[in-house]
């Protein structure tokens, strides 16, 4: 049993590996994916409400939190003629890109 200060994907994965039941409050990084996207776990990609796919691209170590994350990124050609593209992508982004913890299943 621990508070969310001990909540890390690495800790959860380790406790699962040694088959020890855990009671640790999750922190914010375990929430993954943007709003209005469906997570297709079996094919490891996200689908927006327009049906466009943002596939898994890479695993990286976040320099701020020092935790492993998975990155998903759509193509610059997707949603080209989408009327609310600026609200969807922001002012300068050319593609939808987001990440979340590598250890989502463990959370």
Write up this protein.
- A hairpin with a 6-residue loop joins strand 3 and strand 4 (68-73).
- The radius of gyration is 16 Å and the shape is elongated.
- By secondary structure, the chain is an alpha+beta fold.
- The protein has helices at residues 9-17, 85-89, and strands at 37-40, 45-48, 53-61, 68-73, 97-101.
- The model has no long low-confidence stretch (mean pLDDT 75).
- It has a domain at 32-101.
- It has two helices and five strands.
- A five-stranded antiparallel beta sheet has the order 1-2-3-4-5, with no helix packed on it.
Question: Which descriptors apply to this entry?
Answer:
107 residues, alpha+beta, single chain
Topology:
Blueprint (H helix, E strand, L loop, with lengths): L8 H9 L19 E4 L4 E4 L4 E9 L6 E6 L11 H5 L7 E5 L6
Antiparallel strand pairs: 1-2, 2-3, 3-4, 4-5
